[in-house]
Write a structure and sequence with these properties.
Order of helices and strands: HHEEEEEHEEEEE
CATH topology of the largest domain: SH3 type barrels
CATH architecture of the largest domain: Roll
CATH class of the largest domain: Mainly Beta
Radius of gyration: 25 Å
Distance between the termini: 82 Å
Helix content: 25-40%
Number of domains: 2
Structural class: alpha+beta
Shape: rod-shaped
Largest sheet: 10 strands, antiparallel
Number of helices: 3
Strand content: 35-45%
Number of strands: 10
Length: 183
């Protein structure tokens, strides 16, 4: 009888050690998996949800996540759309814990900020660009370069015509915080 108790005790100790080792491995793998999740993946998982994006020294932007590319997020806010470079985002409120770690299924989700801005330039939409260290400026995107955009500055209620353009502002992409397009 004593031998049976001894073997039962040894077996219980071995089971406990194996369970502890497994739990430690699960925790380590979980930490590693969480550490590999990007903000873009978290934003993709939040598609259709309302979030608040905080920007450096600027008013936060609130909207529903409509699309996410490799370096941008598109929010719908009422009748307008707001395109933000993820580099301009300082914090996010309203994200769940989920992450979309699968490859982006839609082609546009793999396209960069410059491609999204070229689409806006192509459709000649009137936009307002919020920039770091400057007042927002309204006009039409004329050209998108490797690291900058040219914005023909004009009133929001006027189409881009030679007589209505007050000047062309070249804006470094690194300084762009939000590009808002009215719907």
């Amino acid at each position: 009888m004593r031998w049976e108790l001894l073997f039962a005790d040894l077996e219980a100790q071995a089971d406990a050690a194996a369970a502890a080792e497994l739990a430690g491995e699960v925790e380590e793998r979980t930490r590693h998996a969480v550490g590999a999740v990007s903000l873009v993946q978290r934003l993709r998982a939040a598609a259709g949800s309302e979030v608040t994006l905080g920007l450096d020294a600027a008013a936060p932007v609130v909207g529903v996540v409509e699309g996410v590319g490799p370096d941008w997020v598109l929010l719908a806010a009422g009748v307008s759309e707001q395109l933000l470079p993820t580099a301009a985002v300082a914090w996010v409120q309203g994200l769940g814990r989920a992450a979309d770690v699968a490859d982006a299924g839609r082609v546009w989700a793999r396209l960069g900020l410059r491609t999204a801005l070229r689409g806006i330039a192509r459709d000649r939409s009137v936009v307002t660009v919020r920039q770091r260290g400057a007042e927002p400026v309204t006009g039409t995107l004329d050209r998108v370069g490797a690291d900058h955009v040219d914005l023909a500055v004009h009133a929001a209620d006027e189409p881009r015509r030679p007589g209505s353009v007050r000047g062309v502002r070249t804006i470094a992409l690194a300084g762009v915080q939000v590009v808002t397009r009215a719907g």
